[in-house]
Structure formats: structure tokens, C-alpha cells
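New here. Your pick:
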Amino acid sequence: MMSCLDSELWQGRFLLRQLVVRNVQMRFRGSCFGGLWSFLAPILLICVYTLVFGVFFKSRWGTGEEENRLVFAAALFSGVMIYNFFNECVANTVTCIVGNAQYVKKVKFPLVFLPVGQVLCSTILVLPWMALVMLFSAWVFKTVQWS
């Protein structure tokens, strides 16, 4: 038999899951490629950054002779991924309670679920970036390192 606390915990998980699903769906609503943008945006971004900083500005990562534009692109891509994840988490959680006033004012609602739902949504959306960083690093460095 489930206690009252177990029931509230289950309902809280369900509510949090619904918030995360809604946030992910709202992110791509109305776009022409939908969820495919999770993969297209990072690929296009790294191509533009590599072209601008690697080709035009001739930036390098490290001082070794074996350095090339792909090593710079891999370092840039991993840094941009971490920055974008942090930026998205902070930018979305700062206004999430004010932006969802309909939940806060009219319903007994655990407020902590709103920022946690935003961070979980950002975590789900950064997973394609992480997969692309891993694949690109494996291709450039012939190994995947956590550093």
C-alpha cells in the first residue's frame, strides 16, 4: 500500500516529466525541421566558427607542429557547447517563475519544479551537442578524452 508521501513523490515526478516534455516541444514548435535542429544547429555553428576563427583569423590551439584547423575546431566546439549549456540554463531559469504566473497564482504548485524542469530540458537539448563533440573528438584525436 502506498503512503501519502509516496503518492506525492509519484505525482511530483509525473509533473516534472510533463514540464520537461512541454519545454522541449515548445522549443521546436513552428520550426521547419523540428527536432532535427538539435543536430543541424551545432554542425552549422562549428562550421561557421571554424571558418571565421580558423581560416580568416588563423587561430590555433596549442603550439605544436601537428596542430591543424580540426584540433582548433574540436577545442572550440567543446567550449562553445559548455558555454551554451550554462547560458541556456541561467537565461531560462531566471525568468521561469515570472513567465509561468498562471501556475504560481492559480494552482498549489511546487515552485522548485519550474527551474528544475528548465535545467532538465536544457540537459536533454545538450545531449546531441555532447554526442557530436564525442564523435568529432574521436575523429580528430583518434580517441575520446574527458578532458
